[in-house]
Amino acid sequence: MIAALDHGALGFAPLDVTEVEPLTEGHILHSRAQMRQTLHISGNHMLVRHQLLQKAQEDLTCFLRGENPATSFIPRGAIEGSERLNHLSRPFRQAIRNQA
Q1: In terms of domain of life, where is this protein from (predicted)?
Q2: Predicted pLDDT at 96
Q3: Could you write out the DSSP letters of every residue in 34-64?
Q4: With contact defined as beta carbons under 8 Å apart, do 25 and 39 qualify?
Q5: b/e 76-98 (16+ beta carbons within 10 angstroms → b)
Q6: How many domains does the chain fold into?
């Protein structure tokens, strides 16, 4: 996870559970601005919800434009493989292309 944060594969990591709890003083994860230790309540944190919704919107917008997001928390193929979403998204994709 540290390498993924450092290289941009992960943009943000709410960390609910660690191997050792609590993290020791000076642990490397304390120095990561893109990481928050949430002590088993990450889904209830408003900042996390906002960032997840914002990222989902960005990912979906990329998909609808026919682009692949540089990083995504949506597994590859999850959207593309959904026939129903592909069918429903055609008008949205066209509208986005027309705006560009």
Answers
A1: Bacteria
A2: 60
A3: TEEE-TT-GGG-HHHHHHHHHHHHHHHHHHH
A4: no
A5: eeebeeeeeeeeebeeeeeebee
A6: 2
Tell me the DSSP string of 19-33.
SSSSPPTT-GGGG-T
Domain containing 87 equals 48-100
Q: Do the beta carbons of residue 71 and residue 8 sit within 8 Å?
A: yes
User: For residue 54, what pLDDT is reported?
Assistant: 84
- Residue 3 shares a structural domain with residue 27: yes
Per-residue confidence (pLDDT) for residue 97, from 0 to 100:
64
With bands split at pLDDT 50, 70 and 90, how would you rate the model's confidence at 36? confident
pTM of the model: 0.36
